[in-house]
Design goal:
alpha/beta, TIM Barrel, six-stranded parallel beta sheet, two-stranded parallel ribbon, 8 helices, 40% helix, globular
Length: 203
């Protein structure tokens, strides 16, 4: 549960970060990390369009550099863009200076005020510098669609078990997640809709 739905202790480490939005409203906020990726991101866009849903895509700058057409597709479809560093750097394994420069490098392509750290971890000094320029967005539910230990049914069950009003829900438009995404994502959307949830963009 610490992974799927972060504990209160993890949430207080980054007090200015966004973990959950308006828990009094029956709405969820769908997000995708690590794209854009050809054959993955466009198919996610088709699924979202089918259900009439907008989402926020936290993109790796180098993927945007390599796949500009897919980046433009996401923007043209009316989804929000967020920064996920230029090289998917881990905060604990990178100096603050290098990490912050890498985030700003990604922003030269992304032009977004939203930032999500890969793996959900930042050094305190990295957090201190980045919160001045970006709104840090974490999650209330990470589906773990990237995990080799889970199958699509288990990813779907994570959504059913942990989703709640105001949840920021994280999937991944990545190659590692693709085998589970095409089954778990539509079922998750349909279940959430059946439960009366509205899908909103991160403000």
């Amino acid at each position: 549960m610490i992974i799927e739905q972060p504990s209160w202790f993890l949430r207080i480490i980054y007090p200015n970060a966004l973990w959950r939005i308006k828990p009094e409203e029956r709405a969820v906020y769908l997000t995708f990390d690590d794209g854009p990726i050809p054959d993955i991101t466009p198919r996610v866009l088709d699924l979202l369009d089918h259900y009439g849903i907008k989402a926020t895509f936290f993109m790796v700058g180098d993927n945007v550099r390599k796949h500009p057409a897919e980046f433009e597709m996401v923007k043209a479809a009316g989804h929000r863009i967020g920064n996920h560093t230029f090289n998917h750097l881990g905060g604990f394994t990178t100096t603050t200076r290098t990490y912050v420069k890498n985030v700003h490098k990604a922003d030269e392509l992304l032009h977004s005020n939203l930032f999500r750290p890969p793996h959900g971890w930042l050094r305190h000094l990295q957090y201190h510098f980045l919160k001045r320029h970006y709104k840090l967005v974490m999650w209330d539910l990470v589906t773990r669609d990237y995990s080799k230990r889970l199958n699509a049914d288990e990813v779907y069950e994570n959504v059913k078990r942990y989703a709640r009003p105001g949840s920021i829900i994280t999937f991944h438009d990545s190659l590692r997640s693709a085998d589970k995404l095409w089954s778990a994502l539509p079922r998750s959307i349909e279940w959430l809709q059946k439960e009366g949830y509205e899908f909103k963009l991160i403000p």
